[in-house]
């Protein structure tokens, strides 16, 4: 069976993990610092703070910026549920606005229209690795005295106008994630990046149970969390970062193969890439025409040994959000249409040409044979 996703681990990562295991430090050691330093250099940010997950990084930033009860954060519903949850953790309110049809990133005009006196931040989401229109969003944020946070958990290596996401010229802070299906992995883990030294220090404290700097282990300056990244995970991440050029090139190659084989079809759209964008592929997602029954396609593919996944189920339509906020559907038409049409195909660095062809052939058969909705 073709794998839906698979991490790409080499001897480099294994040797770095072995170095940690032969050392006296499995947590709060040098490897985390080395990973942070290398990561900051890669994205072009002065400061990087390693954390236990992308979710932890987003929550730490919401907390560090003092966002809380009565505050609003404008964000996208076309994302993993953690984007909204991290706002609710601090009893603030997520304000969902619709996305643009092509990039599936926040629509800047709708963002500006949603700003109220209670708005404290804009939380952009780079869906599938395609950057949002961060320049426009930052201009809006500056005009209204807001913070711009970039949820770049799916977009490590993506560039906008020649700058990698995570560069502080694009957003006040950004968060990346390293789950095994991401561009690089640490198993579980994430990274906060920012140009603000004070914010970085505060996030370091928040990830470590609110401890201050220095050796006062039982002295806690503030409420904090156990959001630390361990040394073994950091070793994997550092090794992956050493190989990131190779890893991104392989992902790009697989994405190009898919796009070439799916070009020119009227029942499926591949991800468009906007001018000025260099895409770092997190997953390979196609958008099926409304006439195509996605569930029937998925069932057929599964029978052919080809896994697939819907991407995403909009946050505002998740049961918890429906119950809490009264969403019924219809509030965000572009987001909801994308949620109904997107289908993720198998995607990883080791996907061979014949496997890509097999996936595409199965997709052709699924649509042609039995997956067109009755008119």
> By helix and strand content, what is the structural category?
alpha/beta
General form: globular
Report the CATH topology name of the largest domain: Aspartate Aminotransferase, domain 2
What would you give as the CATH superfamily of the largest domain?
Type I PLP-dependent aspartate aminotransferase-like (Major domain)
- What's the end-to-end separation, in Å? 34 Å
CATH architecture of the largest domain: 3-Layer(aba) Sandwich
| CATH class category name of the largest domain | Alpha Beta
What string, H for helix and E for strand, traces the elements in order? HHEHEHEHEHEEEEEHHHEEEHEHHEH
Characterise the protein shown here.
The chain is α/β, with parallel strands linked by helices. The protein has two domains: 11-242, 3-Layer(aba) Sandwich (Aspartate Aminotransferase, domain 2), CATH 3.40.640.10; 244-370, Aspartate Aminotransferase, domain 1 (Alpha-Beta Complex). Helices cover 39% and strands 15% of the residues. The chain has 13 helices and 14 strands. The strands form three sheets. The protein has a seven-stranded mixed sheet with strand order 1-9-8-5-4-2-3, with helices on both faces. α1 (11-21) runs antiparallel to α8. The longest helix has 19 residues, at 244-262.
Write the layout of secondary structure elements.
Blueprint: H1 11-21, H2 30-43, E1 47-51, H3 54-64, E2 72-76, H4 82-88, E3 93-97, H5 108-114, E4 119-125, H6 134-144, E5 147-151, E6 159-160, E7 163-164, E8 173-177, E9 190-194, H7 197-207, H8 231-242, H9 244-262, E10 268-270, E11 277-278, E12 284-288, H10 294-303, E13 309-310, H11 319-325, H12 333-341, E14 342-345, H13 353-370
Parallel strand pairs: 2-3, 2-4, 4-5, 5-8
Antiparallel strand pairs: 1-9, 6-7, 6-11, 8-9, 10-12, 12-14, 13-14
Helix pairs in contact: 1-8, 2-8, 3-4, 3-7, 9-13, 10-13
């Amino acid at each position: 069976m073709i794998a839906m996703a698979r991490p790409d681990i080499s001897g480099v990562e294994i040797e770095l993990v072995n170095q940690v295991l032969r050392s006296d430090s499995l947590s709060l050691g040098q490897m985390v610092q080395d990973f942070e330093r290398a990561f900051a250099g890669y994205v072009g940010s002065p400061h990087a703070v390693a954390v236990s997950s992308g979710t932890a990084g987003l929550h730490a930033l919401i907390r560090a910026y003092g966002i809380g009860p009565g505050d609003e954060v404008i964000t996208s519903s076309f994302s993993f549920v953690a984007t909204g949850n991290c706002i609710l953790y601090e009893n603030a309110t997520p304000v969902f606005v619709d996305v643009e049809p092509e990039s599936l990133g926040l629509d800047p005009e709708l963002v500006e229209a949603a700003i109220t006196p209670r708005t404290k931040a804009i939380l952009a989401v780079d869906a599938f690795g395609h950057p949002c229109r961060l320049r426009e969003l930052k201009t809006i944020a500056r005009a209204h005295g807001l913070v711009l946070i970039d949820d770049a958990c799916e977009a490590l290596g993506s560039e906008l106008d020649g700058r990698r996401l995570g560069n502080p010229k694009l957003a006040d802070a950004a968060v990346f994630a390293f789950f095994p299906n991401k561009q690089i992995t640490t198993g579980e883990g994430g990274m906060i990046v920012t140009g603000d030294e004070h914010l970085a220090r505060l996030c370091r404290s928040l990830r470590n149970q609110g401890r201050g700097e220095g050796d006062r282990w039982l002295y806690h300056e503030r409420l904090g969390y156990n959001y630390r990244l361990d040394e073994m995970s950091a070793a994997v991440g550092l090794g992956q970062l050493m190989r990131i050029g190779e890893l991104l090139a392989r992902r790009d190659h697989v994405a190009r193969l898919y796009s070439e084989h799916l070009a020119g079809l009227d029942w499926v759209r591949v991800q468009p890439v906007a001018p000025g964008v260099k895409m770092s592929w997190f997953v390979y997602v196609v958008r099926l025409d409304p006439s195509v029954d996605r569930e029937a396609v998925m069932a057929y593919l599964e029978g052919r040994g080809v896994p697939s996944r819907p991407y995403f189920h909009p946050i505002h339509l998740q049961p918890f959000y429906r119950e809490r906020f009264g969403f019924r559907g219809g509030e965000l038409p572009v987001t909801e249409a994308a949620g109904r049409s997107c289908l993720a195909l198998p995607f990883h660095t080791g996907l061979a040409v014949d496997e890509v062809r097999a996936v595409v052939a199965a997709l052709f058969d699924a649509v042609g044979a039995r997956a067109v909705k009755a008119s």
